[in-house]
Amino acid sequence: MSKTYDLVVIGAGPAGLAGAMETAEHGLSVLLLDEQPEAGGQIYRSIRTTQRLRPQAYALLGPDYQHGQTLESAFQQSGVAHLSGASVWQVEPDRTVHFLRDGKVHEVKAKRLLVATGALERPVPIPGWTLPGVMGAAAADVLLKSSGVVPSGRVVLAGSGPLLWLTASRLAAADVEILAVLETTTFIAYLRALPHLPRALQASEYLLKGLRLKWQVRQAGIPVHSGICGLRAEGTSKLEAVCFTQRGQPQMLTAETLLLHEGVVPNTQLTRQLGCEHRWYELQRYWHPLLDEWGNTSVEGVAVAGDGSLVAGALTAEASGHLAALETAYQLGSISSAQRDAAAHSFRKEIRHHQAVRPFLEHLYPPSPETLNPPDDSTLVCRCEEVTAGQIRQAVSWGAVDLSQMKAFTRCGMGPCQGRMCGLTVAEIVAKAQGKSPHEVGCYRGRPPLKPITLGQLAGLDGAQD
């Protein structure tokens, strides 16, 4: 296998698959690295295996998921080099990519790098969220895709966003016993979203899909409680009850599973490790790499495609992968700027169409204030180092005014996940305690190794051969 590639793509979701295939079509060498056993990313997780071995689950997951089969099949036929089970733990400034596969370290070099690592489900730190039986709604959706597994017993879904309703609809179709959907979306959010409805109608298929999902949930007889607050999970050794407040009235549901969701956020760990410039997105409260119209970052030779920048959905991600690939072909001399621009026209048109609905959705489904800044001091924020919201506030009073100082005071962000789970919440708490914006207190910088690696594996780096 060649050690240097024209393009190395990290991530085999829709953006990565599209970018890899488009680049290869222009005669350039491409290597696609992904830590999952199959291509497809989270949105099309295990698409090939599910279609072949779990046809009932494949049918239940619907046309949005099934679209991935067309994309994945085209990729398999493209002949692009693909290493599954490859976990990238460092990228050097010269675009040398270090990854772990089959327990051994490897490295490859890239003339250009396309980061297509997608998005992460935003953590929802509520009291009791670490109890067995509490998990993310997106995680439950992944289990359905990858294993055909659904939660047993009584299930409650809580939070906001399209994926909450999609998961509820799919689980209802799988005959899961859903006690209720607890929606944190407020009436004020609907009013704020309303001015953006005319533009959203340009992509009316998304609005119709959302209405259909809500109708399916209600048709299944599932109670929906809107505008809830004070959400908490209770139990001793596992989840036993879900408590919340609606219109000033405390309520409790006895349940075995609680699925939480408050949207998704870009996975910026790799772009932060590379030193790419990032911007704070106030509406959805997350950091994202700053990109030009072709997906180029502030670091030469490094591009981002898909939800690893602004979250916009699978079809937008796929189109953005094509744009980044066309830019690679131009930068490496395979096509002219005129050819690049002409080929990009249809993809830009597609992106404009899909993005028409985003302002409406993002105003309708902002993350809950209680998710951003947990009011209960006993709520665990950093799961790796077991640091609570109260301990973070106390550290601010002692002089920890940014996230770097918070590491020194509390070890937040120093665990195995390196702040992937707690970073946004810690920034919100620190900022709120000082009357600042999270933009002012900053974010954790990704440092290698980005993924856990043993000293023995690291010692084998010098002899790594691909």
Outline the fold blueprint:
Layout: E1 4-10, H1 14-25, E2 30-33, H2 47-53, H3 55-78, E3 81-83, E4 87-91, E5 96-101, E6 104-115, E7 119-121, E8 134-136, H4 137-147, E9 154-160, H5 162-173, E10 177-183, H6 187-193, H7 197-200, H8 204-219, E11 224-226, E12 229-234, E13 241-246, E14 249-254, E15 257-262, E16 264-266, H9 269-273, E17 278-281, E18 286-289, E19 302-304, H10 314-331, H11 337-355, H12 358-364, H13 369-372, E20 380-382, E21 387-388, H14 389-397, H15 403-410, H16 423-434, H17 438-441, H18 455-459
Parallel strand pairs: 1-2, 1-6, 2-3, 6-19, 8-15, 9-10, 9-15, 10-11
Antiparallel strand pairs: 4-5, 5-6, 7-16, 12-13, 13-14, 17-18, 20-21
Helix pairs in contact: 1-3, 1-10, 2-3, 4-5, 5-8, 6-12, 10-11, 14-16
